[in-house]
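Hi P.,

Sorry for the delay on this. The queue was packed all week, but I finally got your sequence through. Input first:
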Amino acid sequence: MAVLNVSVVAADHEVWSGEASMVVAKTVEGEIGILPGHEPLLAILASGEVRVTVNGSESIRAQADDGFLSVENNTVTIVARQAELV
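Then the structure:
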């Protein structure tokens, strides 16, 4: 089964990184869900919660304020002005 390699990064530090089965984030156009095999994407983040599902059921949650989300080759990178685990 394919997985996503996810990095959540604030302007001054890495918040979380690891493998995941799904990522849900809030963009300026609405909430978006990313699964393995997603088409390449670049989106502007809105302030809100980022949910990363690992091991099928466990969820990592982070509050991210502004930034962008990039998806390419099952790699999801979230770069925010400010971000912290909640």
